[in-house]
Write a structure and sequence with these properties.
The protein is of the alpha+beta class and 96 residues long. It has helices spanning 12-24, 41-54, 69-73, 89-95, and strands at 2-8, 28-31, 34-38, 61-67.
């Protein structure tokens, strides 16, 4: 499945750890608080548990949005869409 991870995490240390967890899981950063990649159901569950251990559930917000490749191809990208310095060709290829 294609997975988007978006977050708003108050504490710098927790935010840095969550970004590192996303990268270690094979996700690609498309914006500072937004990651995208392809994971299977087990990998998604592990990611969810690891992120839950790092955040403060009273103040932080994390969203995991699964979608199919067909749904991703229907996504509308406006303006600059992705920071080209932060993403790979693999992420761009998911859209085309």
């Amino acid at each position: 499945m294609i997975l988007w991870v978006l977050y708003d995490i108050e504490e710098d240390r927790a935010r840095t750890r969550v970004a590192k967890i996303c990268k270690q899981s094979g996700l690609y950063r498309v914006q500072y608080s937004c990651f995208l990649g392809s994971l299977d159901a087990h990998e998604k569950d592990v990611l969810e548990l690891r992120i839950a251990d790092e955040i403060d559930e009273d103040t932080d917000k994390v969203y995991l949005f699964p979608m199919s490749k067909n749904e991703l191809k229907e996504t509308v990208l406006l303006g600059q869409a992705f920071d080209k310095k932060m993403i790979t060709d693999e992420v761009r290829a998911l859209f085309f």
